[in-house]
Automatic annotation (TrEMBL):
One GO cellular component term: cytosol
Xref: InterPro entries: 4-PPantetheinyl_Trfase_dom, 4-PPantetheinyl_Trfase_dom_sf, AASDHPPT_N, P-Pant_transferase_sf
Protein name: holo-[acyl-carrier-protein] synthase
Domain 4'-phosphopantetheinyl transferase N-terminal: 41-126
Source lineage: Eukaryota, Fungi, Fungi incertae sedis, Mucoromycota, Mortierellomycotina
Amino acid sequence: MPLVRWAFNIRQPLLLENVKPLVTCLTDGDESKQNIVPVSNLLNYLPKVEADALLQVRLEDDMRRALVGRLMVHAFFTAHHSCHWEELVFDCSESTSPVLIAPEPLKNVSFRISHHGDWVILVGETEEDANGSSSPVRLGVDVVDFQAPGHDHVSFESFSASFQDQFTAKEMSFMAEASDSDDASSEPMAENQLRRFYRLWCLKESIVKALDVGIDFNLKSIEMTIQDTEETQTPILSTVMEVHDPKPELLPKEGWSFEEALLDSDHCYAIAAQSSSSASSPSSKEDSGAIMDGSEIKRVDWKELLQNAVPYPVTAAQANL
């Protein structure tokens, strides 16, 4: 089943030429930036309840990432599922991802978004089930900024003790083998160790998001084996998962395939896809591998993101405020 895989760098300036005429507010100050529009103007392209929620986000980068994520979901459905931008309705549920409730025929389309650092990523299936049943594909995606603070000043020995409940002995060995130091146990984690940690964490998080489960999930029950250790922007499809007992609920052992790659020198991403049809098929390896085609993820710009965007209509209640 074909997948859309989009990546958007939030550092791209939003130019006036990329947005509709209703956006008129430009940045003040530097004349060289007079064609740059504040991204907050794009709140017009979301339902008021979503826009109001985003306005409560205190940090500008957090708001920008969340806003771009919601716009990407809209752009995905309008581009690949023949619906109108302003028809999309999402439920504010306890799910870790937006839940589409209208249009009705698209409710079971699998999609996920993730954001961290400079990047927002969307993965989604391009074919809805004609029978309206649950989607046969579980999708999960995660993106990680290698430069995120938190682990760069701890020793690998201390790190191992802190994360022994999330990583298996084999995974810890994989990280330790990347040491740049002769005595990694007493010095801060080497850069390569840290990158391998984030890479494994990204893969595990992609599975958690595919299952749509919370923080209580036993990460140590899933063991990731990275066979291509060299980081590359060309997607790596050889990574495999082994499930250890006791197997968590809702975790199918079969039918999984993975894609991981660099977005740039400071960010990596991972996609997990689990096909129930491939898990039950004798040729499951071939079928699951077809989910990921090995092509490089598509980097989307503002023009592509907003090409089908229209403002959400103002309701009568809003108009009377």
